[in-house]
Write a structure and sequence with these properties.
58% of the residues lie in helices and 8% in strands. The chain is globular and about 55 Å long. The termini are far apart. With 345 residues, it is α/β, with parallel strands linked by helices. The protein is built from 18 helices and five strands. The model has no long low-confidence stretch (mean pLDDT 94).
């Protein structure tokens, strides 16, 4: 199939037997992304197939999500607790911190498998044995076959994940840049009103917690550093955790990870161009986030430094909980200590 909007939309309708995609504003991002892929990305056949599967899957999920809301309008009455939101530059310890926070049994983390396939909504009784877990791990084998990728990120289907898929379903996320060179899309994304995308994000979280509490969410997503105004417009009760590490090490690591992913899907990666673009993007993200922080004040923010997290993860999390006003229960601390002991690196 060609990477064209009409063909992707029709294929999604045909695959699901459904026709309602919800908020039509998603089409803007889809169209901008497809133009960028055609004009800038230089995809190879693997890249074309990967994007066809990814974008088609997002459209199918939109259809299925809207169908669940049509048949169960009470889902809209759900309320999202918090959330506790971890952001900051990528490669600053957000993954390790997210695993620790997700170990708290009173917290609902967004797992990779349910992010990729949120319908039908999970149920508490079968959450740990849902067949989609094995299906997600099978899909992820494409990346797990690359030892360089595994050295930098060793996530599984049950790992807490970022907002990639939920915002991807609205075609409004920086994460598309991780797969392909799409500078025109990123320029659009930086100037785009992200509130509708976060409204869809909230809609998916409500669906996920409807039959599977708790509703106190932990989320993480470094690129959302660029759009904290829109994020907090949708989640006014959010507490923001900003992770920190030497930016020189951060940018080198970010570029390496993007190179590893892109090289599977294109035969051309200009490393100097990649470095310039990532430096510009994340500099802009930090500028925006600092301006937002100065404007709303320090009360909503907590800081976590990677060297503290590595040196003493439990003390670091305890200090974080105290800062954001959450109780660190004995049960939560025990689960966190177990995870930290099993993952020393």
């Amino acid at each position: 199939m060609a990477l064209e909007a009409d063909a992707l939309l029709e294929a999604a309708r045909s695959a699901t037997g459904l026709g309602e995609f919800g908020d039509p504003s998603f089409r803007t991002g889809l169209d901008v992304l497809l133009r960028a892929l055609a004009g800038d990305a230089d995809l190879n056949p693997i890249g074309e197939l990967a994007h066809e599967a990814l974008l088609g899957g997002y459209l199918q999920q939109r259809l299925r999500i809207e169908d669940w809301y049509r048949r169960h309008p009470e889902i809209g009455d759900e309320r999202i607790g918090g959330p506790l939101f971890v952001t900051g530059l990528p490669r600053t310890g957000t993954t390790a911190l997210s695993h620790l926070l997700a170990a708290d049994p009173d917290t609902r983390a967004l797992a990779m498998w349910e992010s990729q396939e949120p319908t039908p909504p999970p149920e508490r009784a079968t959450y740990a044995t849902d067949p989609r877990i094995a299906e997600a791990d099978a899909r992820n084998e494409f990346f797990r076959g690359d030892p360089d990728f595994l050295r930098m990120y060793d996530g599984t289907a049950t790992s807490p994940t970022e907002n990639i898929d939920l915002l991807g379903q609205h075609f409004a996320t920086q994460h598309f840049e991780g797969m392909a060179h799409v500078p025109s899309y990123i320029r659009w994304w930086l100037g785009h009103d992200m509130v509708p995308a976060y409204r869809h994000h909230e809609r998916v979280l409500k669906l996920l917690q409807w039959r599977c509490p708790p509703n106190r969410w932990f989320l993480k997503s470094p690129p959302d550093l660029c759009h904290l105004d829109a994020f907090t417009a949708v989640y006014p009760g959010a507490r923001i955790v900003w992770t920190h590490r030497d930016p020189a090490k951060v940018l080198a690591s970010v570029c390496k990870l993007i190179f590893i992913v892109r090289r599977m899907q294109t035969d051309r990666v200009d490393l100097h161009e990649l470095g310039r673009e990532q430096l510009a993007l994340w500099s802009e993200g930090v500028r925006r986030a600092l301006a937002f922080r100065r404007r709303i004040g320090e009360e909503r923010f907590a800081d976590v430094f990677m060297h503290d997290l590595v040196a003493d993860p439990i003390r670091t999390v305890a200090s974080l909980y105290d800062r954001v006003g959450l109780p660190l229960t004995a049960r939560a601390e025990s689960a966190m200590r177990t995870w930290a002991a099993e993952h020393p690196q």
